[in-house]
Amino acid sequence: MIKKEKSFIMEQQDKKLREQLSKIKHKILVMSGKGGVGKSTVAVNVAVGLSLQDLMVGLLDVDLHGPNVPKMLGARDLKLSRKPDGRLGAIKYSPNLKFLSIEPFLPSEDTAVIWRGPIKHSAIRQFIGDIDWGELDYLVIDAPPGTGDEPLTVAKTMPDAYALVVTTPQEVSLIDVKKAIKFCQKIKLRILGIVENMSGFICPHCGKPVDIFKKGGGQKLADEWGVRFLGRIPIDPRIVDTGDAGKPLIAAYPESTTAKAFEELVRNIIVATEEMKKDILEEKFMRIAVPISSPSKIESDPEKFELFAIYDIENNKILVKDVVKKAENQGLIDFLKEQVATHILLFDPPKDLADYISQNEIKILVTDTSTESPDNLIEDFLKERQLH
Fold this sequence. Notes:
By secondary structure, this protein is α/β, with parallel strands linked by helices. It has 2 domains: 2-281, P-loop containing nucleotide triphosphate hydrolases (Rossmann fold, 3-Layer(aba) Sandwich); 285-387, Nucleotidyltransferase, domain 5, CATH 3.30.420.130. Helix content is 39%, strand content 26%. Strands 1, 2, 5, 6, 8, 9, 10, 11 and 12 form a 9-stranded mixed β-sheet that branches. The radius of gyration is 22 Å and the shape is globular. The relative contact order is 0.11. The mean pLDDT is 89.
């Protein structure tokens, strides 16, 4: 009885999550391999910058142990709103920007959060599913440093999110950023691009840049890993004061060199998200699911669709392959949506199944053999595409 009740509660939460996420066009996880790279500063200024482009934006702080977003926005006194249906709404910062962090739920701003992984996982899911964010063009998520529970939960909850990786130019930061990139590849989180923060220092006396932390490391890393380089953000002495005063620099000093660098970063992010969306529409990027009965055999019986090989393909090359088991009692479409599958490869599918899948905007690839291995079937499909 308890198990059934828990299952029902989870199903309801999953339903609310799907409903909310369907209203958000683009999700951007701002992450880094290490602390101290100015990741929250980037997240806050990017969110404010996007909102100044007349876009509807949400900013979610999932750094549960050290939330900085309310302080950096100067919005610690703002409260969550109550919607007519009884749900809590995200905190309104401006007409185009809403935000949320753990801080409004704590007894005091200096309360220590001492939580293990499962509780953090549940809290982040509730921040999205139980809070009414409304329709958003962008949801910017500020994660704590590293590759732990928080970014992993975001990636699993929002598998169509993009990672915006923040680094500083020096070698010690770049080493850790490589780990963040590998983390994204491992969990199949598409990388939007790399931002090089603290890229030079704007002298307050002469206004000229000084490369105190080197320069160009982020660009070099992006070229090395084949990901976009989205921009350099120089240090402005006022960025500390604006952060402490709760006035994001991009809005407080719009004529400054650093604010203009943030504006360029925001423009590059908008272009990059549209390009990545276009890549899916034009099938430059595909995530193909193949039901399997064993690693070397495709499953032909829809009643036995439990295990799937998932292939990430970009520019006709397999980036990564993973084997994933569908949860018990989980519907096929729910599973495919959860995996952000763009295609499914099937052997001689029944018409009603094919129609059902197509209606849910997942493209069907049909094979006329059930004896060829899934790897070979995918390779043959890619070769056929190249010929055309």
